[in-house]
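Supplementary Text 2. Reproducibility record for the structural model of the 202-residue chain.

All settings were left at their defaults, and a single model was retained for analysis rather than an ensemble. We include the record here because the model underlies the residue-level annotations in Supplementary Table 4.
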Amino acid sequence: MKKLTLKEGEDLVRAARNAIELELKNPYFKKNVVYESVKHFGEPSGVFVTIYHYPTSTLRGCIGFPRPVKSLGQAVVDASIAASFEDPRFVPVSHNEFAELIVEVSVLSEMEQIQGSPEERLKAVKVGRDGLLIEYGMYSGLLLPEVAVEENWDAEQFLEGVCEKAGIPEGYWKQRNVRLYKFTAQVFKESEPNGRVYEVKH
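Retained model, structure tokens:
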């Protein structure tokens, strides 16, 4: 994953906020308007957009694309709208609360499969650096790197947590027929609603 500059991170966060605002004003707006502002982010990349309430940092929505299925610019725009209006855990974001929300963009590296024995898999995961994706049949779950830090988990708890996210028993990460991946993320976040953008370091 090419390391992004802070300016590039600012551009992505601003595009995410603009897309949410335009969707609020007109659900039929043409995404091409925002796509154009980030057309220079043409390389495909996985990305997640997370929305929080300010100042409580309560989660308000989080959706993304684990794999590079579209350009980074388009992925950020689409994920920001989905996180705000399509996350099944929450009601859609309203006009009234938009001014109280902060936007975070996580740009993902390529997925690296973790194989081997349970001990080798456990040893391959580094809390604070790695995010996890697990796939088992029709079930899948992803946790961003920051989750393990925020929850104060060790590597084994993190692996159990991603199983829970996928809706499978906690110990399934040990099974060979379960596909387990790790990735890193470069994270950019607003300090306050529509405020200064900074890079999050864990």
